[in-house]
Amino acid sequence: MSKNIRTDSVNYLFDAILSLKSREECYTFFEDICTVNELLSLSQRFEVARMLRNHKTYLEIAEQTGASTATISRVNRSLNYGNDGYDMVFARMNDKPENEE
Questions:
Q1: How many distinct structural domains can be found in the chain?
Q2: Could you tell me the pTM of the whole model?
Q3: CA dist., res. 96 & res. 53, Å (int)
Q4: What is the largest CA-CA distance in the chain?
């Protein structure tokens, strides 16, 4: 059974994230709220998800991202059995011009 993450504190955090208006503002906020390792771990998982969606093998992903097979497997499980959050974001990013911040 998963923990209920829908709390007032999480809502407040998400409202803060939604208020950010540029990539530079994201850097400013996330460098304050996350450790470097936390931010790199999040970005690594997102890159793993992108590569899995592009049909890369676990070996290719591990070599290119440094992610463990356990991390790759967890991300793959989220892609296949999660809430479709990755796919929602990937679809929106495909509609956005690449240079847009």
A1: 1
A2: 0.86
A3: 18
A4: 41
